[in-house]
Amino acid sequence: MRLDLQARAAPSRTIAIAGPILALLAAMLIGAAVVALLGKSPAEAFMAYFVAPLSESWSLQALAVKASPLILIAVGLSFCFRANLWNIGAEGQFTVGGLAGGWLALATRDGAYQGTFGGWWILPAMLVLGAMGGVLYALIPAILRVTLGVSEILSSLMLVYIAGYGLDYLVRGPWRDPQGFNFPVTANFDPEATLPSLIADGRLHAGILLTVVAVLLAGLVLSRGMFGFEVRLFGTAPKAARFAGFSERALTLAVFAISGGLAGLAGIAEVSGQIGQLQPSISPGYGFTAIIVAFLGRLSPFGIVLAGLVLALTYIGGEGAQVSMKLPLDLTGAFQGVLLMCVLAADVFTRYRVRLVREA
Amino acid sequence: MVNWFRSAATMALSLALVGSAGAAEKMKVGFVYVGPVGDFGYSYQHDLGRQYLQQQMGDQVETTFLENVPETDSGRAFEQLARSGHKLVIGTSFGFMYPELKIAKSFPNVKFEHATGYKRSPNLSTYSARFYEGRYIIGQIAAKMSKAGVVGYVGSFPIPEVVSGIDAFMLGAQSVRPDMKVKIVWVNSWFDPGKEADAAKALLAQGVDIIAQHTDSAAPLQEAEKAGKLGFGQSSDMSRFAPKAILTSIEDNWGDYYVGETKAVMDGSWASKDTWGGLAAGMVKMGPYVNMPDDVKKMAEDTEAAIKSGKLVPFKGPITKQDGTVAVKDGEVMPDKEILGLNWYVKGIDDKVPQ
C-alpha cells in the first residue's frame, strides 16, 4: 500500500479555506506536544499563548500595534507577489519611510516653522514624506529591472542594508541628539510630530487607522478594479497580459511603488506612533516577517489581516508565556516555524488529492 | 483516535483548573534583557544577578525574565511585567530608556530600575557600574606586560561609557609607561563574535601584543589566545575561553544591588535615585590575576585596593586632553557628570573619537 498524490483539475475551494485552519490546529498540537515534553501543562500554555492576550484591553491594543505594520507592509507586498515580482526589500523601504518622515519631525522641532501656520500640518506632511520615501526607494529595483533587467530579488534585498547603514550614519552623526550624551539616538519628537493615541493613556495609536484604510482600499482595487485584474493576469499568464496590450513596464513600476509606499508609511507610523525618535534600528524585522504574513494570508488583504493578527498573537502570547510559565523564548520562534510549515504543507492538499493505492 | 480524545479531555479539564491555583505572598521581580541570556557577557551577567537574587531571597521572591527584547519594541515587555503583578521591574539596556520611562508613568505603584540610563522619575531609578575603575587597572597591567608598547582595543560604540573606559585605560597605562600607545577599532555592536574576532585579528596583524575589549563576547580574547598573545575578559570571568591568554577580567556584579533594591521595595524604603557603584561597592569586581609575574600581580592588587579605599581616583588631575588643553587641574577630580558625558581622548591617544 502506498499514498499517492493526484493533481486536482481545479484547486479545491473548500480546502483553500479549511487548510489554514487545519494547519493552525496541527501546529497547536505539535506545540502542545513540545510543551508537554518540557514538563509544562499544554493547556496552560494554550491559555497563555492564545487566550490571555485576547482577554484584556491593553493586550488587544498591543496586538493591534504589533500587527499593524506587518499587515500594512504585507498588503503592499501582495500586489508585487501576485504579479510574480519579488520585492524582498520592504524592510529597507520601511526604514527609508521612517527616515524621510523623521527628518521633518527633527527639522520642525521646538516649534521651528510653526509660527505662522501652527503645527497641524506637520504630521500629515510626515506621513506623505514617509510614503514618498518608500515609493522612491522601491522604484530603484523596479527601474533597474525594467531598464537593465537586473534581478529585483537581489537588488531590493541589498538595498535593505544600504538603508540600514544610512539610518545608522545619520543617528550617529548629523542627526544625533545634542543633549543625548553622545548616544546614537535623535532627540524626541514634538507632540505635533507624534501620532496621537486613540484611547486615553493607551498604546493604540492612530497609525492603525492607516492600516485599516489601506486594507479596505487594497481589497477594493484587487477584487473590482481593472488594475487588480492586470496584476493577477501578469502573475498567472504574462503572455496573455502582453497580448491584451497591458504594459509590463508600467505594471512593474506601479506594484513596486504601491508596496514601497505602504512599507514607507508603516515605517513613519512606527517611528512617529510607537518609538517617538530615530534610533540605529527602528524595526525588529517587520519588513521580512511581512513576507511570511503575505503568504500566510494567501495574498488576499483580508487573509493578510488574519495572518498578521495570528503572528502578532504568537509574539505577545510568547512573552506572556515567558512571564507566567517561564517557557523559553525559543519556543515562540519554533512555534512560528512549525505554523508556517503546516500552512505550506496544507497548500499541497488544495492542489492534490491524496489517494490510498493498493499494490497489485 | 481514542488517545486524541483522551488528551483533549485532559486539556479541557486542566483548562478549568487554571487560575484556581493558590498564590503565596511572593514578591515578583521582572527583568528585561536586550540580548539572549546565553551571550556569556552582558545579559548573562545580569541574569546571574537575577539568579543570585532568587537564591538569596528564596521563597520570598519570584523572578521572571524576558530575553532578546528589541529596544524599539520593549514598551510592551515592560507593560506585560507591570500588569502581571511584578512590583519591581528592571530593564538592563540603555535603549530601553524612553519606553521604560513611559510605562513607569502609567504604573505609579510599580518600581522600575534602568541600567546605564540617565532619565529618572519618582518610580524609576537608574544604576550603573564604574567599569572605568577596572579599566585603569588593566591599563597598568597592559603597560607592564606589553613588549611592543602598543595595545589593541576593540570598542563597541563611541558613547561616553566606552570613551571614558579608553581614557581610564590609557591613564592607567601612562602611569606605568608614559609612551604607551593604543590602536582602537570600533565594531558598532555590543555582541557580534564574528566582527569582534575580525577586529582583533586586524589589530594583531598590526603588531599589538595585548587585546583589550569593550564588547561582550569572548571572541577578541580567543583571537589573542590563538595568536599566542594576551588579553582581558569582559563582563564575566572569561578564563575558561582563553586560559593561557587571559590576564584578568572586569566582572559586572549586579546580584547584591538587586537584592538590596528588592528588600527596599519590600520594606517600603525604596526611593528613586541614581546608583553608580564601583569596586568599593562591589558592583565591579576583578577576576583572578593570572599569567603575569608576581610584581605585576602585586601592582594590580595594590591599585585595586587603593581605588577601593578612595586613595587613588582614576580621573584625578592633572589630565590633559588630546589637543593639549587641560581637562582637569592638578589635584582636582573630574565630576561624575563630566565622566558620564565624556567624549574626548586624553593626550597620548593617536586617534579621533568618531563623531
Could you explain the architecture of this structure?
The complex is a heterodimer of chains A (360) and B (355). Chain A is mostly helical. Chain A has two domains: 74 residues, no CATH class; 248 residues, ABC transporter involved in vitamin B12 uptake, BtuC (Orthogonal Bundle), CATH 1.10.3470. In chain A, 69% of the residues lie in helices and 3% in strands. Chain A is built from 13 helices and two strands; from the N terminus they run E-H-H-H-H-H-H-H-H-H-H-H-H-H-E. A two-stranded antiparallel ribbon of chain A has the order 1-2. The radius of gyration of chain A is 22 Å and the shape is globular. Chain B has 355 residues and is of the alpha/beta class. Chain B has two domains: 105 residues, Rossmann fold (3-Layer(aba) Sandwich), CATH 3.40.50; 176 residues, 3-Layer(aba) Sandwich (Rossmann fold). Helix content of chain B is 39%, strand content 20%. Chain B contains eleven helices and 14 strands. Chain B has a six-stranded parallel β-sheet, sandwiched between helices. In chain B, strands 7-6-8-9-10-12 form a six-stranded mixed β-sheet, sandwiched between helices. In chain B, a hairpin with a 5-residue loop joins strand 13 and strand 14. The longest helix of chain B is centred in the middle third of the chain and has 17 residues. Classes of the chains: A mainly alpha (360), B alpha/beta (355). Chains A and B meet through helix 2, helix 3, helix 10 and helix 12 of A and helix 1, strand 2 and helix 3 of B.
